[in-house]
Amino acid sequence: MATVSKLQKIASQVRRDIIRQTADASSGHPGGSLGCADLLTALYFKVMKHDPKFKMNGKNEDMFFLSNGHISPVWYSVLARSGYFKVSELATFRKINSRLQGHPATHEGLPGIRIASGSLGQGMSAAIGVALAKKLDGDKRTVYCLTGDGELQEGQVWEAMMFAAHHKVDNLITIVDYNGQQIDGPTKKVMSLGNLEAKWKAFGWKVIKMDGHNMTEILKKLDVAKNSLGKKKPVCILMTTSMGRGVDFMEGTHKWHGKATNKEQTANALSQLKETLGDY
Amino acid sequence: MLDKLTYKEKKATRDGFGAGMTQLGRRNKKVVALCADLIGSLKIQTFIDENPERFFQVGIAEANMIGIAAGLATAGKIPYTTTFANFATGRVYDQIRQSVAYSHKNVKICASHAGLTLGEDGATHQILEDIGLMKMLPGMTVINPADYNQTKEATIAIAKHVGPVYLRFGRPGWPVFMPKGTFVIGKALKLHSGKDVTIIATGHMVWQAVEATKELEKNGVSVDLINIHTIKPLDESAILRSVKKTGCCVVAEEHQMYGGLGESVAGVLAKRYPAPLEQVAVKDSFGESGKPDQLLKKYGLSPKNIYKSAMKAIERKKK
Predict the structure, then answer these.
(1) A2-271 has which CATH code?
(2) For A128-138, how does the pLDDT look when each residue is reduced to its tens digit (9 = 90+)?
(3) What is the mean pLDDT of residues B201-226?
(4) Contacting residues of B for A119, CB less than 8 Å apart
(5) Which residues of B are catalytic?
(6) Which chain A residue is nearest to residue B52, measuring alpha carbons?
(7) What is the set of domains in chain B, with CATH numbers?
(8) What is the DSSP string of chain A?
């Protein structure tokens, strides 16, 4: 499928952008960013109807909220690559006087960002607020929210889950980056999440499982999710991913959650990721 | 002037909030309200009855309420979040900081049952630190109106102000004495002119200050009395004008002595016009259960305390 191979190519460039941003800043969170590169590519380059000219209120657009703000490098990359700002600005990530803050913020006016995130557990509440406003305004577009799995340890997420089911917020798709890793180690060891599918279902959500690295499946499952909207239930996608995906020595471990690659490691990582759209 | 500062009835400031919300609901379709299981206490039933689609019950989940409000504001609505002051601020400080203040969201955080006058529920609910918490946040406007009339006007006025606002009011019936049509955000209100001492008060303490002023004037002390309903941004020029005339001041608030209006005024005076300042505030302690007037007396927030502080400030000026 032509679309799939095109998206895979973009995702490869996005992964290069992630490695280069974090390496250049000598900090940041490459692991989770690499893990969500396929999803964000699919959303911004195929699934969502959105306008890079950027209006804060997102009227008549699909809107995306990143609750796990520490994976900002992947978001900055897809925003730049889809025209919200110049790709050259990616070089300013985490540096002084930059609009590309360590964690996403509206304060410096970076197009594409609608609310600050980073202090975890807050994004889904904001996404619900926007979804409610869309309903009030008769705006039929969809609100997407991405949250980490470790982030589900924050109590506010469960408040939001309860609210969305009770108030039938059925224009919202929350995607959980289910990589089983958090900064201190595997979630199973740090704080078990238990049976997430059963928990979301028990909270009144429609749950869809998805392989977050199979582009064909991502497109198919996002379609299933969209077709499940408007049925008086919020929709959750449990997206299985591998932290650090795309770079062999980074994959499947929490060790690259919040650590950048050094010079040698960067060269190694970049040698595994094809430059498809031109580096910034 | 002082004779006019009297009252025919007592009404709670939270009732003023409810009346303001009713009016706003009819006038401004962008206004939406959220509540964390305290509709009756916040007096917003009429707003809900008249605008059911613009009201969101969030249950006992204040953190989520703040986040949802931030989202509603993002999409162009003007959300009013409602609960008790303790749960409206301290409990959700990080949510307000990141999702509202740092993100420049047009959210109105409306808080009833602030301070000691909440009464019998006791210290778990009597927040005395909220002004400090809110005024420290960049871009946050902090308003603590004095009576029913002023709370109603403030409720309506903040809808026109673009930016986050903390609106603080209270539970008990309280004298309704402020003239209507006088509230402007950030503009201090002179209630009486005098030359011996400036008394600056906010919220419920404005009435306490009126009573103290009447006693002081009776005893030949001339008082410049100012109602500071907006703690941030502070009307510094009104304060400086007054203290330059009187040479000393008393600041009265139903709040902790640390972090409140008293410290803000002290900061202005220390930088621009050093003068003796006395604080009438809670002295680094928690409250307890009791009747509002008993609590105000026990914790040093009675008209008598303001009177004594005024005399002390005047005394210090002579040294």
Answers:
(1) 3.40.50.970
(2) 999 999 999 99
(3) 98
(4) 94, 97-98
(5) 62
(6) A136
(7) 10-175 (3.40.50.970), 189-318 (3.40.50.920)
(8) -HHHHHHHHHHHHHHHHHHHHHHHHT-S-HHHHHHTHHHHHHIIIII----TT--TT-TTS-EEEESSGGGHHHHHHHHHHTTSS-GGGGGGTTSTT-SS-SS--STT--TT--S---STT-HHHHHHHHHHHHHHHT----EEEEEESGGGGSHHHHHHHHHHHHTT-TTEEEEEEE--EETTEEHHHHS----HHHHHHHTT-EEEEEETT-HHHHHHHHHHHHHTTTSSS-EEEEEE--TTTTSTTTTT-GGGSS----HHHHHHHHHTS---S---
